[in-house]
Amino acid sequence: MGVFGHPHRIRIVEELRTGELDVAHLAEALNLPHARVSQHLATLRAHRLVLMRRDGRHVHYRLADEHLARWLVDGFEFVEDEARQAVEIRDAVAECRELWAAPD
């Protein structure tokens, strides 16, 4: 769970829940610099939570396990009563729940 201690990593997982995306798309969606997104993706990749695929100069990422997004929300539901996370992390979790609860 420590790898999800940063709200940007939670948002990256949220963005990848529907499929593979390149770094440029993730940077735009999160309104973050390309380098910062790449750093967070490197952390997620090091923990084998995302997989990457190169296509020329573009690098595409996807979740290593498509159930990760649901597991993440379930995990936060389990611990959120006991562990009072920073407001930014709670807001990111709430946003993910709302998006995932919406019909596709």
Broad CATH class:
Mainly Alpha
In the sheet with the most strands, the strands line up as: 1-3-2
- Cα separation of the termini: 27 Å
Look up the CATH topology: Arc Repressor Mutant, subunit A
Q: H/E element string?
A: HEHHEEHH
Name the shape in a single word.
globular
Determine the CATH superfamily: Winged helix-like DNA-binding domain superfamily/Winged helix DNA-binding domain
Name the structural class: alpha+beta
Give the mean pLDDT: 83
Uncertain segments are none
Number of strands: 3
Radius of gyration from the CA trace?
Answer: 13 Å
Number of helices: 5
Biggest beta-sheet profile: 3 strands, antiparallel
Please identify, by name, the CATH architecture.
Orthogonal Bundle
Helix content percent band: 55-70%
In percent, how much strand structure appears in the residues?
5-15%
Tell me the number of structural domains: 1
